[in-house]
Amino acid sequence: MKKAQFWYADFLLGLFVLFIITFVFNRVIIDLNLKEDKVQELINDGTSIANSLMSPGYLGFSQWANKAGRIGLVDNGKVNNNKVNDFQLLLNSNNGYDVSKFLLGTKNDYLMYFEDKNNNIIDNKVYGGLDDVSKINQIGAENIVRFTRFAYYDNNNDGKGELVKMNILIWVFR
């Protein structure tokens, strides 16, 4: 009789270990799928933001501040300085960053900046979720996605613009 009890305890212990392994395996698979879904959401949002910023958009700061219009910075492949200034005004206004996220159709944080051919941030200006260039490398995000688009930019209106990179970062905090 003791031999049967010994095998019964081993069987229950083995079954318990099997259940634990199955539970852990399922949690890992579910977590992987959730992370993949979040990355795909960031990619979709980033594509949407990049397309919007690279478009002419419509209306301007006064309408954007009232959650009307579409934010766009580029006309015919050239960055429009007036629209960039309107975008900066919106971001500096009360609750402007949240309004810009609404107009760009995202709930995730984003950042946009221009880089010259030497990978220097033009005028040390960033637009969006951060107010300082030095904080870019300090973004504490679980997932971050970068998009790069190219456009002609004459940032000081002297007629001597150049082809620049418009970088868009989109992330979700941990």
Please tell me how large the radius of gyration is.
Answer: 25 Å
Principal-axes geometry comes out as: elongated
Task: Give the strand order of the largest sheet, numbering strands 1, 2, ... along the chain.
Answer: 4-3-6-5
Question: Topology as H/E string?
Answer: HHEEHHEEEE
β-strand percent reads 15-25%
Number of domains: 1
User: What's the average pLDDT?
Assistant: 81
Number of helices: 4
Largest sheet: 4 strands, antiparallel
The tally of strands reads 6
Q: Stretches where pLDDT falls below 50 for ≥5 residues?
A: none
Helix-and-strand structural type: alpha+beta
**Approximate helicity band:** 40-55%
Oligomer: single chain
Q: Termini separation (Å)? A: 56 Å
Question: What does this entry show, briefly?
Answer:
The chain is an alpha+beta fold and 174 residues long. It has helices at residues 2-53, 61-64, 81-92, 96-104; strands at 74-75, 78-79, 109-115, 127-128, 141-153, 162-173.
